[in-house]
Amino acid sequence: MRADFVTTAVRTGPPGHAGVSLLVIEKGTPGFTVDRALAKMGWHCSDTAELSFADVRVPAANLVGAENSGFYQIAEQFVVERIALAVHAYGIAARSLALTAAYCRERETFGKPLIANQVVRHKLVEMHRQVEVARTYTREVAARHVAGSRGDGPSVIAEACLAKQTACDAATYVCHEAVQLHGGTGYMHGTEVERHYRDARILPIGGGATEVLTDLAAKLLGYTP
Ligand SMILES: Cc1cc2nc3c(=O)[nH]c(=O)nc-3n(C[C@H](O)[C@H](O)[C@H](O)COP(=O)(O)OP(=O)(O)OC[C@H]3O[C@@H](n4cnc5c(N)ncnc54)[C@H](O)[C@@H]3O)c2cc1C
């Protein structure tokens, strides 16, 4: 809604990934309109817009990189994007766990705090375990990516897919349990865990849906017919 320009992937060549280029299209270019903000379940801190393009003419100078190299440029960013989303996921999960542990100490039912119940403590431990596994694995993959390690062991590209999935699964589980342990309070707008629950839902969809990234990992890891 507010961008001064958008970088678009456009078809400039043959079908498939080798026929895509990146073009910068500036706000105000005739034929390019920002039609409306899309109402979303979560991520309200980031607006998402519906854009329209009708016979838009763009100067050749707005081409980014070589013609038909757009997909390769996008792909270069994919690993970093997947790792960043994994960090985002375990960050939301860690925050939801901290809020929930504090709430379970404070909230009393039947004359004792929630955390006095063994089943509640075990839930907190399971949330903790999933956050730690997601954080440790994601950091390990990030370190390997930064070190440029592409030789031994599974491909870093595949592992970035798996790290994203691991962290998204953790966020999905932890945010669900965080709302559950907050009871009715957790269902109310204005309770922080309710926001994390909604915000977490986009993570296994955006930046490569889990199913699509799993299929890519299958190819990269050699699990092919
Ligand atoms: C809030 C928000 C922000 C976004 N921001 C950006 C952005 O900044 N830039 C950008 O480029 N995109 C952005 N997107 C788009 C986002 O990347 C896509 O929505 C996402 O990749 C899923 O694609 P899709 O919606 O077309 O779903 P589809 O491709 O239609 O998939 C629907 C379902 O089918 C599954 N599926 C699809 N193909 C297969 C297959 N071959 N095998 C098995 N299962 C399959 C998917 O995993 C998914 O579960 C954003 C989306 C949202 C909601």
What does this structure look like?
The chain is of the alpha+beta class and 225 residues long. It folds into 2 domains: 5-64, Butyryl-CoA Dehydrogenase, subunit A, domain 2, CATH 2.40.110.10; 72-220, Butyryl-CoA Dehydrogenase, subunit A, domain 3, CATH 1.20.140. It has helices spanning 70-106, 118-146, 156-181, 192-200, 210-220, and strands at 5-11, 20-26, 32-37, 49-53, 63-64, 108-109, 112-113. Strands 1-2-5 form a 3-stranded antiparallel beta sheet, with helices on one face. A two-stranded antiparallel sheet has the order 3-4. It is flat, with a radius of gyration of 22 Å. The mean pLDDT is 95. Residues 40, 43, 48, 202, 205-206, 209, 211-212, 215 line the site of flavin-adenine dinucleotide.
Short synopsis of the structure:
The chain has 5 helices and 7 strands. The protein has helices at residues 70-106, 118-146, 156-181, 192-200, 210-220, and strands at 5-11, 20-26, 32-37, 49-53, 63-64, 108-109, 112-113. Bound molecules: flavin-adenine dinucleotide.
